[in-house]
Write a structure and sequence with these properties.
This protein is mostly helical. 76% of the residues lie in helices and 0% in strands. α2 packs antiparallel against α5. The longest helix has 84 residues. The chain is rod-shaped, with a radius of gyration of 46 Å. The N and C termini lie far apart (147 Å).
């Protein structure tokens, strides 16, 4: 059958077929586009997760650095606290009952206590007790004395009546 012999009904069928094929191709392209969009969304999600992981790693690193810095900074007050303890304990001279009066000794003990943080009072009290000599030390060594005030009161009770002013 030559082209001139094609019937009009055949041409209409061909046009209909062409339209149908065009619709099918259009639908295939739409599906392909949807697949591409879906793949793009998956890729974006992977990138977002990777970015979140990177940000999380950076935050963890910063947190470790902060903790290390905090630990190093925490050591500084201890060092300065030790310096304050050393300076304040050096204010207190040894006491044997002959070199200075109980009043002077207890006064310097309280001054030394006032120089340090409140949480170090028990430590400085123990250090001050070690400044006592002879009978003075023997009088308090068996007691569990935690505060400078209690220590000073105990010394005054036991020894202030022996002194003349």
């Amino acid at each position: 059958m030559s082209q001139s012999q094609i019937k009009p009904s055949d041409k209409m069928e061909t046009r209909s077929d062409t339209r149908q094929r065009s619709k099918i191709r259009f639908r295939q392209k739409e599906l392909l586009l949807q697949e591409c969009e879906h793949a793009l969304r998956e890729h974006e999600e992977i990138l977002r997760v990777d970015t979140d992981k990177l940000a999380l790693n950076i935050l963890e690193t910063l947190l470790r650095e902060i903790l290390m810095t905090t630990q190093q900074t925490d050591d500084v007050p201890r060092e300065s606290q030790n310096i304050f303890l050393r300076e304040s304990i050096n204010m207190v001279s040894q006491h044997d009952g002959y070199n200075i009066s109980i009043g002077t000794f207890t006064h310097t003990c309280k001054q030394a206590r006032d120089l340090i943080p409140i949480n170090s009072e028990e430590t400085i009290t123990r250090l001050i007790i070690n400044k006592l000599r002879g009978r003075r030390y023997s009088a308090v060594e068996d007691y569990n004395i935690r505060t400078t005030d209690k220590f000073c009161d105990m010394l005054r009770e036991n020894f202030s009546h022996n002194e003349t002013f």
